[in-house]
Amino acid sequence: MFDTMNKRLFCSLSLILLLILVHSSHAMEDSTLYRSTPSYREIIERYERLDSSSPYAKLVPYGKTDGGNQLHLLVLSKNKIFELKKLKEMGILILLINNGIHPGEPDGINASLLLLESLLENDGKNIPQNVCICIIPVMNVEGALNRGCCSRVNQDGPPEYGFRGNDLNLDLNRDFIKADSKNMISWIQIFREWDPDVLMDTHVSDGADYQYSMTLIASQPDKLYSTQGEYMKQVLSPALFEKMKEKNEEMGPYIETLTWNLPPDSGMKAFLETPRYGSGYAALFNTFGFISESHMLKPFAHRVKATVDLLHSLIEVCEENYTDISNVRKKARKENVTRKTFPVNWELDKSKFDMIPFKGYEHSYKKSEVTGMDRLYYDRTKPYERNLLYYGNYIPQDSIVAPKYYFIPQAWEKVLDLLRLNGISLIRLEQDSSCSAEVYYLDEYSTTENPYEGHYVHSNTKVKKSTEIIQLRKGDFLIPLMQEGSRYIVETLEPQSIDSYFNWGFFDGVLQQKEWFSAYAFEELASSILMENVQLKKDFDALKNTDPSFASNSFSQLYFIYKNSKYFEKGFKRYPIYRLMH
């Protein structure tokens, strides 16, 4: 055991020395970034120095965070132009690199500083001509300020790092739709203003052990729709993997096993990033999204180097393909504006699979010294390379025929604020009116027993639909579907979508019945209701004859009559956003 630990320590120190030697020719690069992560104040000071010392770099302050701190964006422009409109007119591709959404996974924080230093040396000769690089130094500022040694129990270094939760103890990588945090509100302002063509969100993985130092999540191609999805699958992703291989840093796909806690050779599947995650959110606005996942058990220095290599590779791919990326994205946007049907709620397609090359470690089971039961372990002395089962396709479980407009009463201010924040065009009504609309009634849904990211989240939502005359009041809002944010609109306003505003609990008020009856006072009225409604009387008697629990419960019988009478409140479980088809 002692020899093994010494050997590992020697290998880690050797790697650090090697990295220092490799980068010694780059005077600006700081070898300490391969050993430790700077404090948040030190990180921002480094960015401020880059801003003041280089005409190619500009540090832009954006909105506040939950802890009252400033969120920053560093813009790196070869043309020394920092106005987005001019950059877009010049056909410059916008690449956004997001760091520190999980500050306990700091590899991208360090790697971005190293990246900037290498690009800026020799008067910026290495800055790409056709790619504007935008970097958020740390998104979860308060998590970065909450430094410690031990919250990432399975991670090999650095000595200190930040914490996953922010000041509200929220995981910001689940906050992209609900935007409960000020951090996320400021981030969305950056994202929607700069409208990046490509997003890279940097992370460190959890899970199985394998040989790769870096794995990659790409926006699920099926979910991107045909135009973008094919380009991601056939061009962008393969180019990134090839670039990494050329740098002697072969990369693997992000590992998610078919059955949790089983090894990769049991079968793997592509990760599905729904809109609550960064790349899933970005896909709603036709941004190509990537998530870097360096491997937690690799030495910190090696993980940082792999992240630097990936960022360089992504910049090279963007520079080589900037025109095609822009054109594909424009085509996809036009497709979204004219789309009539929107697929939602994607599930793994088990009818399609590939056998992909994978570099792993043999696994086995042995008796646990803690529990006395069998435990899984990976044997790093037995590496393998073989083809493994991989499911990479997803299919939609639901398909939404989009209305021409959604109607939202002005009372739902939180929803309206989020739509505005995300750049969705709203039309405010100038007078009272009425019209025919499709109305949803929330028929079935499941709710978590415990809070998840501050919400009791709904799922498996089913609706019943009816056509009714609705009242539109002055000051209420219409949302036209023919706009670039149409996919965001559908994913958030259709209650059955996995990350809809309803499923996040924004409309829970409609799920509680407000008016009831006193049984003794309702008895005579209930009797007259049955006498006046022949069909209701038949249904009532049939239920009494077939359901013993109903037949033995007087309140249930009265409630059945009440619920099917004109006295029952029409707003109960009635979804307050309506669909105008014409």
Secondary-structure topology with pairs:
Blueprint: H1 2-22, H2 40-53, E1 57-64, E2 70-76, H3 84-89, E3 93-98, H4 107-124, E4 131-136, H5 141-145, H6 182-194, E5 198-204, E6 214-218, H7 225-246, E7 252-253, E8 268-269, H8 278-283, E9 288-294, H9 300-338, E10 341-348, E11 354-367, E12 374-391, E13 394-401, E14 405-408, H10 413-421, E15 427-428, E16 433-447, E17 458-472, E18 477-480, H11 486-493, H12 519-532, H13 534-546, H14 548-551, H15 554-563, E19 578-580
List its salient traits.
582 residues; alpha/beta; Aminopeptidase; 3 domains; 15 helices; globular
How does this model look, in words?
By secondary structure, the protein is α/β, with parallel strands linked by helices. It folds into 3 domains: 2-337 and 345-394, Zn peptidases (Aminopeptidase), CATH 3.40.630; 402-513 and 572-580, no CATH class; 519-563, no CATH class. Helix content is 35%, strand content 24%. The protein has 15 helices and 19 strands. It has helices at 2-22, 40-53, 84-89, 107-124, 141-145, 182-194, 225-246, 278-283, 300-338, 413-421, 486-493, 519-532, 534-546, 548-551, 554-563; strands spanning 57-64, 70-76, 93-98, 131-136, 198-204, 214-218, 252-253, 268-269, 288-294, 341-348, 354-367, 374-391, 394-401, 405-408, 427-428, 433-447, 458-472, 477-480, 578-580. The strands form 5 sheets. Strands 1-2-4-3-5-9-6-7 form an 8-stranded mixed beta sheet. A 4-stranded antiparallel beta sheet has the order 15-18-14-19, covered by helices on one side. The longest helix has 39 residues, at 300-338.
